Amino acid sequence: MTQLILASSSPRRRDLLEQVNISYETRKQHVDESKMTCRSPRAYVQALAELKARSVPFSVDNEVIISADTVVSFEEQVLGKPKSRKEAFDMLSMLSGNIHKVYTGVTIRSAEQETSFVEKTTVEFWPLTKDEINEYLDSEEPYDKAGAYGIQSSGAIFVKEIKGDYYNVVGLPLSRVVRSLRSYGIFPNLSQPEHKVTGN
Length: 200
Fold this sequence. Notes:
The longest helix has 14 residues, at about 40-55. By secondary structure, this protein is α/β, with parallel strands linked by helices.
């Protein structure tokens, strides 16, 4: 039986796989993102997803490894996870009243094949006041998310419109991932929900 290995520590990606009842194990990947050279946002997430997938070794022959990386991009500038409150404030001020893009790079690999792709979603924010931004920054939510907001939680109130896959903004373009996994022999369990999560 084929075993899916999620090479990601993101709780959102775990939740999304569980949402469609795909069994998986987690395994830590070891990539120093700070050493990535600045390129276009699309090239950046694709390269990083590929590096993450290849940094995780196979334990047995029937494993399939999936990795992903998500960034927010405004005017071709990559906005990752903020390292401070000021950086988070600056990011949200930049996105306020503007349109930005969210890119997620995905790599799936087995011993026999490898698939990589990038999904893009366009997001428009309402104009935000300083008080709105500061109130949001008082929570823990912005600091572990690209672009300093979570569309699946309180950050949703900033979003005026999206064009593209909503789940891509959360962190994984779910429907495209499910379709890509079919060629690796991995399918969602839609008739008998079973959430199986193991690993570290």
